[in-house]
Automatic annotation (TrEMBL):
Catalytic reactions on record: ATP + H2O = ADP + phosphate + H(+)
Keywords: ATP-binding, Cytoplasm, Helicase, Hydrolase, Nucleotide-binding, Ribosome biogenesis
The protein's name in its UniProt record: ATP-dependent RNA helicase RhlE
Broadest EC class assigned to this enzyme: hydrolase
Species whose genome carries this gene: Halomonas mongoliensis
Predominant place of localization: cytoplasm
């Protein structure tokens, strides 16, 4: 099947061809006709499957077909959980819509709002936004959402993880009740099903990947190692195997900073990316990593969400995630578009319970390896894991029990999960610094 067989306009086909795409992916083959049909959609696909084009192309076509005279109004709203994903979706809208007369813009927190207000004022057809900044501007009456015809929730599972559900509910209240709703998620969790039941009206359902499965082209392996030897083992694997473009995951922002500094001292070029970094620093690090100038990018789960890096060869879990589903998200960044990838996890005694939870979720036992010279101490005792989030699908160390006082629920204000999309002004308006923690309630 070709894109022309999906019923897309000539202007969109020209844009697709200019991007170098000829054959639609499975999610695109199913989603594009479903969206063009005008009904609601619930779609699940792993990252890297082409889902952005799966909703962007038919959304643009519907807007172009139903273009209204007069001042432009926001007729399509795309909500994303992170700045990086918002920017990525915004680029796709601009690229695919280049031969149409539609206007679009992207807004997110972490940068000044006035340039965004100035861009919105003349009128837009498509607005791509993170929930926090959108709600800020809407409450200040800079954004009118009364004419929205199409709502897209992209990476909906991550938005729930980040506690955006309250913001989403507030946004839904100011949207027209009659509209097309498109919900995209990497997994069909119970929370996503509950949200879909409230939001969607008799949706078409698409599930490209089997529920909570990992990419089949990814070589997954576990290296057993003592916690204090993880950094040495990581540096050893990178240098001995001559790995380049290595995406490394840590649980915390502090851990990401520390690991990037340590690797750089060992002449392995590395930078960290997380929510406390400025937008310019995040953009600079990502650009260097994509170009190959930066060998290692160390990231937290939230900061890495939405990173679009083609043919990423190596993903390393320096620390296993506390939520088993996050393992699927992490390693889904390699082995994309038919390319083979390698996912390596460095696992110490503290994380044996987390590993069991991951293996239960993906329904397979992962290969266990021991690197000569890095043999783990068989008598090592587990210790609590900092910033744990002992909830769905997880299980902490010590056989899956909560890990000491470090275990937190989503609502208890984990620093790593605190959204940074709203500025200090908003927190002041709401009576102090606790507003960030409030958003994490789900």
């Amino acid at each position: 099947m070709t894109f022309s067989e999906l019923g897309l306009r000539a202007e969109l086909l020209r844009a697709v061809e200019a991007q170098g795409y000829t054959t639609p992916t499975p999610i695109q083959r199913q989603a594009i006709p479903a969206v063009l049909n005008g009904g609601d959609l619930l779609a699940s696909a792993q990252t890297g499957t082409g889902k952005t084009a799966g909703f962007t192309l038919p959304m643009l076509q519907r807007l172009a077909d139903g273009k209204r005279p007069g001042k432009r109004q926001i007729r399509a709203l795309v909500l994303t959980p992170t700045r990086e994903l918002a920017a990525q979706v915004g680029e796709s809208v601009a690229d695919y819509g280049r031969h149409l007369t539609l206007k679009s813009h992207v807004i997110f927190g972490g940068v000044g709002q006035q340039p965004q207000v100035d861009a919105i004022r003349p009128g837009l057809d498509v607005l791509v936004a993170t929930p926090g900044r959108l709600l800020d501007l809407q409450q200040q009456k800079h954004v009118d959402l009364s004419q929205v015809e199409i709502l897209v929730l992209d990476e909906a599972d991550r938005m729930l993880d980040m506690g955006f559900i309250h913001d989403i509910k507030k946004i839904l209240k100011v949207l027209p009740p009659k509209r097309q709703n498109l919900l995209f998620s990497a997994t069909f969790s119970d929370e996503i099903q509950a949200l879909a039941n409230k939001l969607l009206d008799r949706p078409a359902m698409i599930e490209v990947a089997r529920r909570n499965t990992t990419a089949e082209l990814v070589d997954q392996a576990i290296y057993r190692v003592d916690r204090e030897k993880k950094r040495e083992l990581l540096a050893h694997l990178i240098t001995e195997n001559d790995w380049h473009q290595v995406l490394v995951f840590t649980r915390t922002k502090h851990g990401a900073n520390r690991l990037a500094e340590q690797l750089s001292k060992q002449e392995i070029p590395a930078m960290a990316i997380h929510g406390n970094k400025s937008q310019s620093a995040r953009t600079k690090a990502l650009a260097a990593f994509k170009s190959g100038d930066l060998q290692v990018l160390v990231a937290t789960d939230i900061a890495a969400r939405g990173l679009d890096i083609s043919e990423l060869p190596h993903v390393v879990n320096f620390e296993l995630p506390n939520v088993a589903e996050d393992y699927v998200h992490r390693i889904g960044r390699t082995g994309r578009a038919g390319s083979e990838g390698q996912a390596v996890s460095l696992v110490c005694v503290d994380e044996h319970g987390l590993l069991k939870g991951i293996e239960r979720l993906i329904k397979r036992d992962l290969e266990k390896r021991i690197e000569p010279g890095f043999e783990p101490d068989p008598n090592a005792k587990p210790e609590p894991i900092e910033n744990g989030r002992n909830r769905r699908g997880g299980g902490g160390g010590r056989g899956g029990q909560g890990r000491g006082n470090g275990a937190q629920t989503r609502g208890q204000g984990s620093g790593q999960r605190r959204d940074d999309e709203r500025g200090q002004a908003r927190r002041r308006r709401r009576g102090g610094g606790n507003s960030g923690g409030g958003r994490q309630q789900a």
